[in-house]
């Protein structure tokens, strides 16, 4: 092979490698750069499904439902926040955990959270939810008052669930934060990761 051909082969190989690397990085960051879908707070079926999560002992109280995905690093940040921070008084809190994880379940129980473990399919069919981490706050009459993210920025560490709940309890409407994190449903995972690099 001539020197010129070798040079072109090298340039072409580097260009292909660079292109693949950019595509891979874009795929891996998609869920963190783009806002993921959150449910419609006016969805009556969703409100009924969420209200059914609140036990009789907590009826008439504010309730927070934390939808978290055991395989999602953004959800892990929220787990750490929930289990290590003071929780708001008089608020019933439960975790919808997508994907069983004994350590997370143990920590949640120790912190006083009820936990329900779901498959991605069950989360979508029962609640119409396809992404996480997602915060849902119900008022004393079990009406859905907030459905959105936890942080203002992607991969943020300033988890604002307590501030959101306190704002609602004060009679104000908090700004809905964007939902950054991971797709939970197979369809959304394929859309975010067509190359199959992040989700297996």
Please give a quick description of this structure.
The protein has 200 residues and is of the alpha/beta class. It has helices at 3-33, 44-51, 73-84, 102-110, 120-127, 161-169, 186-192; strands at residues 62-69, 91-98, 114-118, 131-132, 134-138, 144-148, 182-183.
Give a written overview of the molecule.
This protein has 200 residues and is of the alpha/beta class. The protein has 2 domains: 3-33; 44-190, Glutaredoxin (3-Layer(aba) Sandwich). Helix content is 42%, strand content 18%. It has 7 helices and 7 strands. It has helices spanning 3-33, 44-51, 73-84, 102-110, 120-127, 161-169, 186-192; strands spanning 62-69, 91-98, 114-118, 131-132, 134-138, 144-148, 182-183. The strands form 2 sheets. The chain has a 5-stranded mixed beta sheet. A two-stranded antiparallel sheet has the order 4-7. α4 links the parallel β2 (91-98) and β3 (114-118). The radius of gyration is 21 Å and the shape is globular. The model is unreliable at 13-33 (pLDDT under 50).
Sum up the overall morphology in one term: globular
Q: How many DSSP H or I helices? A: 7
First-residue to last-residue Cα separation: 41 Å
CATH class of the largest domain reads Alpha Beta
SSE string, helices as H and strands as E: HHEHEHEHEEEHEH
Assigned CATH architecture of the largest domain: 3-Layer(aba) Sandwich
Q: CATH topology of the largest domain, anyone?
A: Glutaredoxin
Secondary structure category? alpha/beta
Which strand order does the major sheet show?
A: 3-2-1-5-6
Contiguous low-pLDDT stretches (5 residues minimum) are 13-33
Quote the average pLDDT: 83
State the CATH superfamily name of the largest domain. Glutaredoxin
Classify the beta-strand content into a percent band. Answer: 15-25%
